[in-house]
Specification:
With about 475 residues, the protein is of the alpha+beta class. The protein contains 10 helices and 26 strands. A hairpin with a 5-residue loop joins strand 4 and strand 5. The chain binds zinc ion (ZN). It is an enzyme of class 2 (transferase).
Length: about 475
Amino acid sequence: MDSNHHSNYKLTKTEKKFLRKQIKARHTLLRHEGVETVSYATQSLVVANGGLGNGVGRSQLRPALEKCGLVDGLLMPPNKPYSFVRYRTAEEARKAYVALNGKEIVGDLGQKIILYLNFVEKAQWKELGLQALPPGLMVVEEIISSEDEKMLLESVNWAEDIEDQNVQKSLKHRRVKHFGYEFHYENNNVDKDKPLPGGLPDIWDSILEKWLKEGFIKHKPDQLTVNQYEPGHGIPAHIDTHSAFEDEIVSLSLGSEIVMDFKHPDGVTVPVMLPRRSLLVMTGESRYLWTHGITPRKFDTVQASKGHKGGIITSDVGDLTLSKRGIRTSFTFRKVRQTPCNCSYPLVCDSQTQQSSPLLPGSAREASQLEREHVHRVYEEIAGHFSSTRHTPWPRIVDFLKALPSGSLVADVGCGNGKYLGINQDLYMIGCDRSRSLVDICGERRFQALVGDALALPLRSGSCDAPLSLAAIHHPPPAP
Ligand SMILES: [Zn+2]
């Protein structure tokens, strides 16, 4: 039986729409993901929209699939908006193809998702490659008892007066408090001559002594930053300023688990689970060379099997699911560095880059000259690292775009050659770039784009649902 053969009756409008969407899903999978579909029935199907990256968890998708037959395997790749299901027989897969195409299911956040299924010869998934934690990184589980956790969380007084000695800031995406030294987000450094009165709260004395004695840490820290993340909050990828802090940086996660992404300059990303009541220890390469950050989202991709807790989220796509985030409070301990850093990573070391005192531009012209010199030089230096990542869309941005509601209006300021304009066909994307020739390329690719300056956009304020500005404006990354 050929389910693609519909010529003996006239399709209804809805059927036509579904067919169009299904064909579009097939093209998108091939063009953006290299997933090849076939037009005859096989045991395996790719389920477009039914993926972890689309907010669909294993527990929502599996029951729907099992109604059509015995599910032999369900592969859910991390951060992808699709998954692969393998049935015991091609007949069962065909049943699912007929029954579930265009069918609506409810995702992990209560959102409605319409599934589009296509046959594949076999589930294809590129291996993530790296299966190890970044060198120098360690996650110590259950380092604190539940009672201590409660006590420590209650010890943070978020409500106290801002004039208090311990500086509290409400950053855009999370609550932050500093002890020992204030951390300045303008220069990502501390004022080493101005320690805060009071030092670290007394409650930590015995705990830090214990960690020292048990060998989890080697130095007694003198700076503490407390961050509170609500579901949906995150922190941009960054490396803690080398000249500001010594080698060892440790962070205690209380209240809720979270997945932190570590990224090597060559583009390798390692998602690491930080369970509730665990201590993350970053030393050496993981502290100096890898960036770490938390993607702002309401759920994480985690291992489904109960035994697996802390550490790397593997690419075992047969075992991934979604976990809703809770409120996480992190206590990050660092030791302020009193001498310049002499690490083995000069490219990312602010102590070792031959910069005299930082120049402050006196005029717009000087500023743009400075920008040209510095930005250009930096790009030249890291060109080797960038060559592999420059032309492919950043997966996190792809996920962001794919997660936006259908029909959203998105402006991509500094859109370049339009790399992101075609990621999600259900969005209305408008690109904008200063370069006429790049905008022309967008036009050739049949994207909507216009020539314009990011500082004077020809778009009405508030007219877009989401802005996108990548690799065009660089904000200095805040530290945890
Ligand atoms: Zn360094």
